[in-house]
Amino acid sequence: MSIREAIVRHWPLKLAALALSLIVWVLIALEEPATHLEDIRLELSLAPTAALAEPLPPIQALIAGPRGEFLKLASAPLVIRAAIPESAEGAHHHLVISPSDVELPRNVKVTVQEVLPREIDVVLDRRAERTVPVAVRAVVEPEAGYTLDGPVTVAPAVVQVAGARSVIGAIDSIATQSLLLKNVIGTFERVVPLDTTGHAVLHISPASVTLSGRTRKT
Q1: Which of 215, 72, 63 has the alpha carbon at shortest distance from 145?
Q2: Domains along the chain?
Q3: pLDDT, tens digit, for every residue of 56-93?
């Protein structure tokens, strides 16, 4: 029997055996104990008159358990819930957290060994609301032989912003995400999200606006 014949002989059985071996290896690897740093979502309960004045720092948990359990956390994140007293409004509230504060999903079999950091400062201010204009960041390039017929309009022209008074007071407008339209003929209309970069502690409504305009022949 040649080497080639020996290799291809009973190849379906050999392929099935190889696949089964890989499956067994993966299952064993997923059951191996390991440690892993996982992000934690911190959910704060604030007084109705209070709002965050600064973004919360990232928090992570050092968890231990079978490797396969870590995969479940992609759809069921770790959470810490904390209530901030009304007396903390307009001040730095020192929040101390521990591994026992971490809420684990029911179907995830891991243990929390540590949380990093253990202490954070929550900066609060009085909650306020105001309307601010929308700043359009759009470039419209008409098709050859056409020109833009008037300015690009935005609807709504103003948006509602809610959050810490000290943060809102420093805002004069909310910009749209950058938009580039090429070879435009006739009327155009696009829904564009607002750019929330640097506004993590604010609630902006609506989250998107509609830009429209038209071109005409030159």
Answers
A1: 215
A2: 29-126 (2.170.120.30), 127-217 (2.170.120.40)
A3: 999 999 988 887 787 787 778 899 999 988 776 567 88
Strands 203-205 and 179-184: unpaired
Classified as helix, coil or strand, 68 is helix
Could you identify the residue written with the tokens 């309307």? 131
**Separation between Cα atoms, residue 44 and residue 41, nearest integer Å:** 10
Phi, psi of 49 (to 5 degrees): -95, 0
* 3-state DSSP of 141-189: EECCCEEECCCCEEECCEEEEEEEHHHHCCCCCEEECCEEEEEECCEEE
DSSP string, 92-142: EEEEE--GGGPBPPTT---EEEEEE-SEEEEEEEEEEEEEEEEEP-EEEEE
Cis peptide before 99 (omega within 30 of 0): no
This prediction's pTM: 0.73
